[in-house]
Amino acid sequence: MDKIYMNELAFYGYHGVLPEENRLGQAFQVSLTLGLSTKQAGLSDDVADTVSYADVYETVKEITEKKRFKLIEALAENIAHRVLTDYPLIEEVIVKVIKPNPPIAGHFHSVAVEITRGR
């Protein structure tokens, strides 16, 4: 299976368990690995034979910026479901949601969840 990588898409959303996260919001990063055959697109050089990553970006943006979830696991699950539903050429999707500045006492770079879903 071929892959299209969409790395560290940046969004601002209102996801989290704590009330401050829902009120103030925060930055999120989403990375996707789209599993599909790109052979026909490679032969035809026609975007109609593949998945437009511009369209996928808009799908992820809509979910991340307009919906609200307590858990980044739920955000990832919703993204995976929608990508598989809206883009039938995609056979598998890996979604990684990164929360760069979670409100947790301590020093670290980020927290993240990664899921793999397929047809």
From TrEMBL:
Boundaries of every Dihydroneopterin aldolase/epimerase domain copy: 4-117
Domain of life where this protein originates: Bacteria
Catalytic reaction(s) noted: 7,8-dihydroneopterin = 6-hydroxymethyl-7,8-dihydropterin + glycolaldehyde
GO biological process: folic acid biosynthetic process; tetrahydrofolate biosynthetic process
Keyword entries, A-Z: Folate biosynthesis, Lyase
Enzyme Commission code: 4.1.2.25
Metabolic or biological pathway: Cofactor biosynthesis; tetrahydrofolate biosynthesis; 2-amino-4-hydroxy-6-hydroxymethyl-7,8-dihydropteridine diphosphate from 7,8-dihydroneopterin triphosphate: step 3/4
GO molecular function: dihydroneopterin aldolase activity
InterPro entries the record matches: Dihydroneopterin_aldolase (IPR006156), FolB_dom (IPR006157), GTP-CH-I_C/QueF (IPR043133)
Entry GO terms, CC: cytoplasm
Function field: Catalyzes the conversion of 7,8-dihydroneopterin to 6-hydroxymethyl-7,8-dihydropterin.
Family of this protein: Belongs to the DHNA family.
Cross-referenced PANTHER family: DIHYDRONEOPTERIN ALDOLASE 1-RELATED
Entry protein name: 7,8-dihydroneopterin aldolase
